[in-house]
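Course exercise 7: structure representation. Students receive a sequence record and must write out the corresponding structure in token form. The form below is the worked example handed out in class, using Peptidoglycan-binding domain 1 protein (560 residues). Read each field label carefully; the graders check that inputs and outputs are placed in the correct fields and that the protein name is recorded exactly as given.

STUDENT ID: A-19
EXERCISE PROTEIN: Peptidoglycan-binding domain 1 protein
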Amino acid sequence: MRAFVFLLLLLVSARVVQGEPVSLQNQVIGKKTTARQHAPDSVLAAQLRCHFQAMDSNAAGPERRAFNNQLARFYAARNYRPVWTERADIAELIEAIGESENDGLIPDDYHIKEIRTFFLSPPRTPELQAKYDLLLSDALLSLAYHLRFGKVDPESLDPNWNLDGTARRTALEYRLQNALAAGRPKAALDELRPKHSGYAELKKGLARYRVIARAGGWQKVPEGDSFREGVRDSRVPLLRKRLQQSGDLPGGVTDSSKVYTAAMANAVKRFQKRNGLSVDGVAGTATIGEINISAAERVDQIRLNLERYRWFVNDLEPTYVLVNIAGFTLQYIENGRYRWGTRVIVGQPYRETPVFKADMQYIVFNPQWVIPPTILAEDALPAIRNSRSYLDRKKLRVIDSRGRVVDPASVNWSGYSAANFPYRLQQTAGDHGALGRIKFMMPNKHVIYLHDTPTKNLFEKSERTFSSGCIRVENPLDLAQLVLQDSVKWNKTSIDSTIGTGKTSTVNLPKRIPVFLLYLTAIAEGEEIQFRRDVYNRDDRLRKALDSPVPQYRIESCGL
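STUDENT ANSWER:
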């Protein structure tokens, strides 16, 4: 029997070194297999306690320092007793670390090579046993935190990010302590992984695109004249193969024709829709540009957005509004289910719509627009100094601090800047107004809100970065009916009647509704992955942060 157990453990070790999954089924049933021939727990506890006492908290950067503190609390809670005394638990952790690649994370961030080496050749000295224990615990805590909250701190990329992370680490440590006590570390990590269907489908998409990339990806289609139905072009066979590889055109049929057929045009339409392009079936410069983005680049794009999902998806409430800035869309989710969606217009690249969360609290019908400070400084005052007709064209009135209308001719326009301008420029309500007939207020420091717009034609554009930061909604009256949550009092007829009065009025929502303004360049619609252009150039910075090695965990002295 002892020979059988020894042989089985050797097989388990070999599989781990080769990177194969190891599960509890690989362990000896009915017996607990220790992780090592270990020194007494009291000796290891002394080693572990000494490690944290010797640790220089100022030697590490803020991120590593946070994880060091987390690890110190983790061991202090168990009076510095060693954590990893069961080989089965270590095998589970190794399996979980390997699977982290499926989430777009990097197994090397979790000491996988050192852990596998120790697993194959268990350490015998108390010093190395303590080091092994520390590496395993740091790997568990780091991976757990990254799966639950993301590897990259979103605030480090964008200070506007305002989802509250208070007490996250402490709650996580308590949860993992319980999981280890129950001998289920991998199950605990699986539970921390986002359960949102969009996240799960993105993971499946990542696996599919990795298969394509590892097989060599697809060949680029040379630039040239646009492909239009009926056109003959030597590049058509190459385009046909490319559309088959991405599933837009059925594969398995050999066709060497150089004619751009109706079937190919329909396949291009599917590709265009999936990639947020104008859907016309004509493969012009923009479409070919998207077609030529490599499978490896798409793999990275999916990884980045899995990370973005980890930042917010576990904080979603049952009912909320989600605006995808990069996708130019708004979704209303009610009780966890998609209820309604529409197109939106977002900020121009030099006036980006910020990423943040706020609660929608009330609606204003027939709003009167007051020009905000940025537009006042950069647009309005320079235009008025150039020509007083700007005020008439924009239907703007000059209002003083007492609310009185002021004659524009009495204002010394050249004597004021936006910083000391003593008036407000207010636009009258109506279909001509910048806010249209309705705005949705969610108080925030950015003075950003959702609103109607008179420029409906802009919604037909595939890329809609035209605003000064606020969100223009294509079908705002439909949204109003949903958020007011009263189909009797606030139906289409009553809303139209309220707007028809022309009077400015405010209606409080019966319940605040969280609004998430997010930036997602890859999303899942069912089993289909949709890609969007990085209009604010945010992907590259996130990619560098996500691919950067985590700060090294330094094992301090005490004979280690």
